[in-house]
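Structure request: ABC transporter substrate-binding protein, Gracilibacillus dipsosauri.
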Amino acid sequence: MLILPFFLFVLASCSSDSETNNNAKIELDFWTLFGGGDLSFMEEIVEEFNNSQDEIVVNMPAIRNSDYYTKLVTSVAANRGPDVAIAHTSKIPELNSRGLTEPIDDFAEEVGLDFNEFTKNLVEGTNLNGKHYGVPIDTHPFIMYVNNDLAAQAGVLDENGNIIMEETPEGYIDFLLKIKKALPDKIPLAISNAGADPFRMWWAFYFQMGGSPIYSGDLSSPDVTIDREIAIKAANYVRSLFHEHEIVPLNLADFYQDFQTGRAVTMTTGVWATGIWETTEGLDFTALPLPNLFEQKATWGDSHTLIMPIKENTTREKQLAVVKFMDFVTDRGVDWAEAGHIPAKKSVVESQEFQDLPYRSDYAKVAEYVALPNKTAYGDMSKRVFEQNLDLAWTNRESTEKVIDTLIKDLENLVKK
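Returned structure:
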């Protein structure tokens, strides 16, 4: 039997390993917070990416939405995090302040990902101190839905099927009161009277009224700069829908179901509901921007972005693969728009393929004036402070003046911790 010298055996083994490594794909772990329809659309995009080339394979494990950010922060801090992950724009400053995110500008330039191709205010939301810490894939703003059959019965549609409404504070209320009078057994406006959605409406009207930023200055130690008078004025307007005009019934058990089953004529919520309504048999609806009732164009919104978490044992080759994947996902914005979201890349929104999608093009322009949350490490905590305090106004347990004063005090205490 021929026995090879030991050094030749080692050389042959190394050569074999090298060939194996050269032929191996770069594997990326991709974490998302999506569920339901959103998840299935993203799974399709990932599958399409994996089938489009032979160099990179993206794995997408299931992560529970309820504790997604906790798991993300913990895993990245322990150097066991994903290579690429979804994060809301509002969450990026907090992740960055903890040292958990990687700027991607250098990799983007090498790959050919151009930040100028994205809607300006969305990409600006990922820019911290001159560096981009995320690539936006969408915006998901707060908009308005109309049940066309009920609106026609109420006499608030013209011959072309457009709503008849003067876009002023009084005009919006008159529009809803006309529905209330014409269809007394229906809900003119379906919205919860606690939690996220009435807060989002308040946010939209606050910035439509020209409200100043909630915070200013340093990302980690900001000053509270909310405009008290405008905050009270916006709260009074939203509160009047529940109490003074009794347009919104109190304590709706499920305002989504109210709209879906034809009990509500209009509804306000995020664009993610579009995918639900268009798969609801017999529901003829229109999706519209939230009316701009005051001086400025604005609505509440956030953005899903792709971020590159810090990872000690990564390589530049792997980081470039991450950004190639990011670029691919943003180019597939039409596929992602099936979930109802507005794609972040301008060329996608302008494409005929997107324009041909039902409903989405009707509210796509909203992306240009979404009032994104302030860049602050206190984004999530601030949202809870807003909702807890404003709920007292919607339920008429406290005056709006007291609610806003307590809100401001709570925000100031929050950022001083």
